[in-house]
């Protein structure tokens, strides 16, 4: 079972293209990309093509980084041109950006020149101006206003947008404000709320929240979400997955489903590849000794270096709430693994979410 959860070779691959490596134009205080030891470079057209031709299955592509828009319009055009050549196997194309470099020219490229690719844009914003205070530029200025401008440009082009939010310690008390903010952004259709669980010396950093605090945030938000019928306008993870799993429907979100980590392939410049980018590429790079990427992944998940990740899933086998929790995010648990109290709190926090979700049973 464990190997199937980490990787099923029959499914589409989700490529997370680190087009700008881990380089970025802003300086978010918590960013895990800064910890990765990789060379500064951009993915070249040739490297992208080499990767795409070595994939047997269909693919979902996300332009990522660092900051993907840092590569500039001409380079973006060249990479999209390669994607377009392989469009028979591309299921969808997404851009995950901090929004600060987004403008009408990028919009024209995404929605006019490459209209047929149906590109979707998701922008990172941690909530209100106050909640977003760790997302700053290199002068220490909050990026909030620029991000709101980016949503407005998308709206002007008639495009819906996604949002990725990281909830850190100082944001816990702003649940109501968070709900107000997401309702104010007219074209928002999808939101993913993630916790800040950064670990240093095996303990959570001062800006991080604890697993219990995160579940409390999600429960409070969940109550507002239902009371104010926000679900009619915006799909919010992990609430959506919790409702799906408690009602016996399969969630599509890796944290709550049985397809995790090695189905999300991070591609760095020079064709360096790894599992989901929440893991450090320095810990889990994938060896490429056969031609097709799918075969390389299948081989790699049998290697000894994956054993610590598999052990996490072994622990879930006896768990009463496995069908609801499905093991959670394995990178979070991996970085908690040397702190027994934190690992236990992670599972307790999932049990708390399970108790809440029971009320959402239809
Ligand atoms: C690494 S960024 C890359 C794409 C782009 N620069 C952006 O900010 O959307 C992708 C997402 O990872 C999130 N992220 C970065 N560091 C994180 C951390 N330590 N914990 C949780 N999420 C983090 C960011 O907030 C962002 O939503
Ligand atoms: S914008 Fe994205 S890549 Fe850049 S520092 Fe912030 S989270 Fe990291
Ligand atoms: S590390 Fe977490 S976010 Fe990444 S694929 Fe695995 S479960 Fe999903
Ligand atoms: S609660 Fe803990 S043991 Fe149970 S499925 Fe979730 S992560 Fe695994």
UniProtKB/TrEMBL annotation:
Coiled coil: none annotated. CDD domains: Radical_SAM (cd01335). Pfam families: Radical_SAM. Signal peptide: none annotated. Residues 10-237 form the Radical SAM core domain. This is Radical SAM protein. It comes from Intestinibacter bartlettii. The lineage of its organism: Bacteria, Bacillati, Bacillota, Clostridia, Peptostreptococcales.
């Amino acid at each position: 079972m464990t190997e199937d959860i980490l990787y099923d070779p029959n499914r589409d691959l989700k490529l997370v293209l680190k087009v700008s490596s881990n380089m970025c134009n802003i300086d978010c205080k918590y960013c895990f990309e800064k910890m990765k030891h990789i060379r500064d470079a951009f993915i070249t057209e040739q490297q992208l093509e080499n990767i795409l031709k070595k994939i047997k299955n269909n693919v979902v592509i996300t332009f990522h980084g660092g900051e993907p828009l840092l590569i500039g319009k001409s380079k973006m055009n060249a990479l999209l041109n390669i994607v377009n050549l392989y469009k028979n196997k591309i299921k969808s194309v997404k851009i995950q950006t901090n929004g600060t470099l987004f403008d009408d020219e990028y919009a024209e490229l995404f929605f006019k020149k490459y209209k047929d690719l149906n590109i979707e844009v998701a922008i990172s914003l941690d909530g209100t101006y106050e909640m977003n205070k760790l997302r700053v530029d290199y002068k220490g200025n909050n990026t909030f206003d620029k991000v709101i401008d980016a949503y407005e440009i998308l709206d002007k082009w008639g495009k819906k947008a996604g949002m990725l939010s990281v909830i850190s310690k100082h944001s816990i008390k702003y649940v109501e404000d968070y709900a107000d903010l997401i309702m104010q952004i007219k074209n928002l259709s999808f939101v993913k709320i993630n916790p800040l669980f950064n670990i240093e010396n095996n303990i959570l950093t001062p800006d991080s929240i604890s697993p219990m605090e995160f579940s409390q945030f999600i429960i409070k938000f969940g109550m507002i979400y239902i009371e104010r019928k926000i679900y009619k306008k915006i799909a919010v993870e992990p609430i959506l997955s919790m409702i799906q799993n408690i009602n016996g429907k399969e969630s599509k979100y890796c944290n709550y489903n049985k397809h995790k980590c090695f189905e999300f392939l991070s591609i760095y410049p020079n064709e360096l590849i790894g599992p989901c980018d929440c893991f450090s590429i320095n810990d889990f790079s994938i060896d490429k000794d056969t031609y097709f990427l799918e075969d390389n992944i299948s081989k790699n998940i049998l290697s000894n270096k994956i054993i610590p990740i598999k052990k996490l899933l072994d622990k879930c086998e006896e768990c009463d709430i496995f069908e609801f929790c499905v093991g959670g995010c394995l990178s979070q648990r991996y970085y908690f693994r040397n702190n027994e109290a934190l690992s236990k709190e992670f599972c307790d926090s999932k049990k708390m979410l399970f108790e809440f979700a029971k009320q959402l049973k239809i």
